[in-house]
Amino acid sequence: MTLSLRPLTAAIAICLSVTFSASTQVAAEERLRLTGSSTVAPVMQEITKMFEDARDGIAALAHSDVPLDVLSPDQLRAIFTGTVDNWSELGGPDQAVVVISKGEGSATSVVFNSFLGLTADKIEGDIVAAENAQMIKTVAVTPGSIGYVSIGAAIVDIEFGTPIKLLALGD
Cβ of 124: how many Cβ atoms within 10 Å? Predict the structure, then answer.
């Protein structure tokens, strides 16, 4: 299993790429090794055949009433550290920014904070959400809110009409 992080410059904030490979050409130290139950290994081998290259990412998301569609890393950093606390400071309406963060140590938080060059103690969140579904629901019912979440989880909710939107990453 290979993990790699890379910022996307024009679209979504951060992409976490997970690659499973059943190929014998993968270096020995990069192969996913399975031991133990005789039923686990065959199931995992079938999964790796189905998902040779599975990807998801992390993106900032906002309540659908937030009129901005693109934020730069500097703007995201300012929002999540409390330097910006009103959308008018970024060209939006005179509306309080409600920061929703995830609990310290969550994998999503670690990747998001790392991308922004922040540590958990620098985040000034108004509300803490435990996991993706809670983050999405909280942003959906909180006007002016912003958070971060798995892109895949957000897309499903957006398709079902949840009042959230993914924010693109700008310069």
Answer: 12
